[in-house]
Amino acid sequence: MAPPSHCHATNGGGAPQNNGAIAVDTPVMTECARLLDADEFRRHGHLVVDFIADYYAGLGEYPVHPTVSPGFLRHHLTAEPPSRREPDAFAAALHDVRDVILPGLTHWQSPRHFAHFPASSSTVGALGEALAAGINVVPFTWAASPSATELEMVVVDWLGKALHLPEKMLFSGGGGGTILGTTCEAILCALVAARDRKLAEIGEERIGDLVVYCSDQTHFAFCKAARIAGIRRDHCREIPTYRDDTFALSPTELHAAMQADVDADLVPLFLCATIGTTKTTAVDPVGELCAVAAPYGAWVHVDAAYAGSALVCPEFRGVIAGVEAADSFSMNAHKWLLANNDCCVMWVRTPLALVAALGTEQEYILKDAAAEAQGDGGGVVDYKDWGMTLTRRFRALKVWLVLRCYGVEGLREHVRSHVRMAAAFEWSEPTRGSRW
């Protein structure tokens, strides 16, 4: 973490050198020498660790949801930023976090927080996040940070095996995976890959004929992604589900919808099946849906953001029976597998489809000479071509630490303990007059 011992500045005069670059010859001590000072980092780091530890120790005392009004924080903070560094500014800022900011937060890690979805966290996950932030690399290509890229490749295969995913979705089986921020990104990336692959077959002028499918329980992020990808709003088919089917998407209803679109000279493009819908935790019959979509050449993505973590337990593997025929699969390790936000992992059977749709062109600055010298790339993965962004975070580090420190068996016990609690709540009867 230690920076160079000094910064340099020109003393003025002299002709420009090196194609107009400013000559640098006089060392001058400036504030930038302290930006990554190891001793200062150690002092402030101890303050932050103590702050977080105290926060967790007293977390149950906070109201889960704040009782504040819009604008409350702006009234507590100054309208103008500080013009100069304040004395002991970091400690003072932490006091403001404690006294002003924390009271306005919803405390997702609270033992009394039951809204939205599980916000998974752990000491290892948090420290892994801190470690990645401190190292602060930008692994958009293999050359930019070889270890970061290769650790990500190792981690997605480790996790894929722990979740009992088919070999063909892992790097070891010809597929591959990447760690993104959210399920919204995963769905959009898969959808764009499917769109471009289909348009290469039927012609780009037919983009207005493409149709996508989901159930009425599917997260709204899917239809949002479809709009971003250029799919017409009225071409997002939300197929009704029913209580008698436990709100799962019916293969029969899907087939009828796809065939009706084909009869209308439209093109079925993409199906989003869900393992654990947000509304009802419904589980769609993946294998049967893949069988329906296959004759139409539609891409099948399995969104297991919510319940995919349960697949670490072999006894739950049956919920994705038939997933071997799916094109892509994603889950959120930050929802049940002890990794901190944000951490969505996506696997694909055909990585080339992603790269063809999301790869960058005219990238001579980013090309890796060593990989080019090997002709076919030598197995090099440039993750900038697997997602929407070039700048990306070193998320693999925290997932690797979680797997190293808890192990697959530790993750299984974590999930099973929650399942046991759910079963206990399901079968227990409240005492007359008690509050639930």
Automatic annotation (TrEMBL):
One of its GO terms (cellular component) is cytoplasm. One of its GO terms (molecular function) is pyridoxal phosphate binding. The keyword Lyase applies. Pfam families: Pyridoxal_deC. Residues 1-20 are annotated as: Disordered. Its cofactor is pyridoxal 5'-phosphate. The keyword Lyase applies. Keywords: Decarboxylase, Lyase, Pyridoxal phosphate. GO terms for biological process: amino acid metabolic process; carboxylic acid metabolic process. Signal peptide: none annotated. Gene3D superfamilies: dopa decarboxylase, N-terminal domain (1.20.1340.10), Type I PLP-dependent aspartate aminotransferase-like (Major domain) (3.40.640.10). The modification N6-(pyridoxal phosphate)lysine is found at residue 335. Belongs to the group II decarboxylase family. This is Tyrosine decarboxylase. It comes from Oryza punctata. The lineage of its organism: Eukaryota, Viridiplantae, Streptophyta, Embryophyta, Tracheophyta.
